[in-house]
């Protein structure tokens, strides 16, 4: 039996114990007698999860022992973590075993993110607790199951959920900033609380990751662990630690997307080099509607989707041209979709949903085939599981969460348009 209050979890009854081999500190999975389903599988996953988290944090958990409690499904208690202990119910097995493994990685990661490295301003932000736990679970699954696939694509399949939650399940313009003002309360509704605490925070961390690059980002994470484990770190310390590791001032990003609320609109125009041109010099024009200098990772892709050129640029002015030389003629140029939880990206050619620099029948075909799709299924009383995780936000040309006649109207008006406004 489980008893729970704000700061106390009390388990009573008979528990069976499964030792986890080959891990430090000594770890066991314990479950109520008669409720051992999945417990052995969890014990088999833990060595890999711990090794991943050890690499992320720069060392093993500094506990004498760790106990993972596998619990049956109970209303209002899917899982949590405390000092050297993790609790996870069978609730997450109803989707898939990979999802269950992902959530186990999330909860175990909280032994770092929130227990050992516990921010002193927990009442104002969940960036380095839930945000880091989501970041950890996404990266764990990517490394464990999809290491041979393009990392951006794998992570975008995860981060697309973040974008849909932010844009359509909640109102991004009224959702509080990641760092709440002094004295402000957490959001009112469950949807807003979850999106604010878990998905807005992890989207910002991934924006930092794209800006800094993987090697620097994960080094900054280890710096954070070294500085803040059993320490008294606050939000400003995080910005300082990551900025020092990056060797650049990240405060504009923290100010715009974490201390404040910003969802800038980015325009992109793509003009590829002429056929058979040597060298092949391509031009991408970016524009923005905010004053903040924005890091933008551009991907120039071939007709088969292969990335021919990848480069991070900084858009400081309202608009700027960027030239790139490629080995082969690109078919399209687009902004890394991982950045599009915050950036709303539209082609300079209205209706150009595949970002090849012109609005044509290929764009029309994509939008027609997606007619009727909704980002959120239940529009009256939407919940966290009522979203279409494969909803293509780039096809939503009017940003209303539905692919319908409104998108076709944009396409009709723009058919034949090319980058720069020509026809």
What topology emerges from the helices and strands here?
Blueprint: E1 2-4, E2 9-11, E3 15-20, E4 27-32, H1 39-57, E5 66-71, E6 79-82, E7 85-89, H2 97-109, H3 127-145, H4 151-169, H5 190-212, H6 214-228, H7 235-246, H8 251-259, E8 265-271, E9 280-288, E10 294-301, E11 307-315, E12 319-326, E13 332-335, E14 344-347, H9 361-369, H10 405-414
Parallel strand pairs: 4-5, 5-7, 8-14
Antiparallel strand pairs: 1-2, 3-4, 6-7, 8-9, 9-12, 10-11, 10-13
Helix pairs in contact: 1-2, 2-3, 3-5, 4-5, 5-6, 6-7
Account of the protein in words:
Helix content is about 35%, strand content about 20%. The protein has about 425 residues and is α+β, with helices and mostly antiparallel strands. The strands form four sheets. A five-stranded mixed β-sheet has the order 3-4-5-7-6, covered by helices on one side. The protein is globular. About 40% of the residues are buried.
- Total count of helical runs of at least 4 residues: 10
Kindly state the percentage of residues in helix: 25-40%
Q: Sketch the topology as an H/E string, one letter per element.
A: EEEEHEEEHHHHHHHEEEEEEEHH
Overall, the morphology is globular
Evaluate the radius of gyration. Answer: 23 Å
The beta-strand count equals: 14
Structural class of the secondary elements? Answer: alpha+beta
Query: Span between N and C termini?
Result: 70 Å
What is the mean predicted local confidence, pLDDT? Answer: 93
Stretches with pLDDT under 50, minimum 5 residues: 1-7
Biggest sheet, strands in spatial order? Answer: 3-4-5-7-6
